[in-house]
Here is the input.
Amino acid sequence: MSPGADSSAVRDEDAFDVDAVAAYLDRGPIAGVRQFRGGASNLTYLLQYAAGQPDLVLRRPPVGAKARGAHDMGREHDVQAALAPVFPQVPAMVAHCTDETVIGSEFYVMGCVDGVIPRQDFGFPVTPEQADNLCDRALDTLVALHGVDVAAVPALAALGKGDGYVARQVGGWTKRFADARTDDTGDWSDVLTWLDEHQPRDVAQRMIHNDFRLDNLVLDPDTLGVRAVLDWEMATVGDPLMDLGGALAYWVEAGDDEVFQLFRRQPSTTPGMWTRERLVETYLERSGLALPAPGWLFYEVFGLFRLAVIAQQIWYRYVHRQTTNEAYAVFGPAVGYLESRCRTLLAGQR
Here is the structure.
């Protein structure tokens, strides 16, 4: 399936100098540019070339103010380049441009992996057996990533900061949330206090993706096997259960309430898809890891809080008119809902 099927015309505010990119890459003229759907964080484009020349994909940061350390194109490029020999499900890196005069920002270019990216729905018939198989293969992919021997790859080992990953994440995301507050941000103090007081120890130091979702996978359209994992912006060495918790914050089940259904960005409600509980249980079986006290609740609540911070950062950009994309108008109410969902989960455990 052509990757162009998952793209649309470039939004005006996200346009860039195509001729300048063509000159930089020195591969001949670019015949057309399409913008991939999604891209609430970094922006992703399909660079289309004439017949006989393979298409490429360009990634660059959004316009407007950015959180310190976020949207690091060089880091994202280098992580994938280092992973390629030990984890083949990454696109091939083509170029990394640090000269911001070319298009107004740093960017990198990678090979285009043919396949289907599952968004809210597959767009084609999928049987329950195929959905079950996809969950199995996607989970195996995550377990394989967490099984990479980072010590054998210096560039990956350098990402690690040692024990204390959970504590650094709680502190870091709490600060990001404070920095992105707007006048309508709710009072998260009880949730933040609980997270601070119930931090488990790190269970391991592994290579983690930090945004592992079905809509960040390129699938074989016939077998639904995983051809590539995309969007490595937040990849690092850290606690694998934190990675799983972040992934399942996006996993909406058929039985979830109507508001949470609006959060669905992947076809996780398709008949045959696994529940969050089954994904956690199977992951623990295959990875050999054990849950520390206080069990899965911490990872679930933290995953939802982290999702709320990501939404709040985007909402901050929208409120301050750093983006005019009206799709972001719902992010403020989304933060409020996630606050309520965290509080409901905690109330059920007290």
